[in-house]
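hey so u asked for the seq, here:
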Amino acid sequence: MNPKSCLSFAKCFLFLFNLFFFALGSLLLAFGLWVLFDRQSFAAMLGSPLYSLRVWSYTFSGVGIMTMLLGFLGCLGALKEIKAMLLLYFGILLLLFAAQITVGVIVYTQRVTLATKVATYVQELIRGYPAQGPPGDPHESWDAVQQQLGCCGWNGPQDWNHPDGRPGDGEGAIACSCLEALAPNSTHGPPPVLPHGRCPTAAPQEIFPRGCAEGVQGWLAENLVTIVGVCLGIGLLELCLLMLSMFLVRNLDPDYEKLLRGL
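ran it, structure tokens below
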């Protein structure tokens, strides 16, 4: 293939990919802001706690802004042949790629320590769950986890017995989000309001029998192929974009008069 044609193909490919990323980032940012400013409607529609929706809105907005920035740098750098933008694009993308690998290695090598810290945090949440009145934001999020995964406590329903270490709490310590009868059913009408607080009269047969540690392991086992596939796809795409951007940087005309004419 003619080197000039190869360079034009790389420019076109990089431009189109980053144009798609810029549009995707705009949609993510718009959706994040929508969730942030209309959380009450989303909470009623999805049956999710407001705290979780706020976290997701910040996440969507942050990812959207980062995606828009990368898309802008890649598009303009490829279209106008601006080496500085392409180098900045390459640097940010390389940092993201390295950060993803680092996080993956840390999660894999420290998985036992992380599981212990999560278990300790959940036990603290259970001990601090209010006996009366509305729960706080972290407790609402834990209620949502128990309902969505169909689990109770971290190791099992026994985690809710005597949460403060005092005798006599008995089954009154159980959270209403542990009850099977209140679990959401997406196939019949809108999702119900997420249950909060304690249910002193809960019968043992109405409580989810498994703990959320088993529920999380089951969810990961069911979705392992999807998670690995998505991670590999993102990694390969980033490698492809890294190689394309560096190819353009090394083969573009170093004459910066083109930059002055294009701006």
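The helical segments are 3-37, 39-46, 50-80, 83-109, 111-127, 137-149, 212-251, 257-262. The chain has a mean pLDDT of 79.
lmk if thats what u needed
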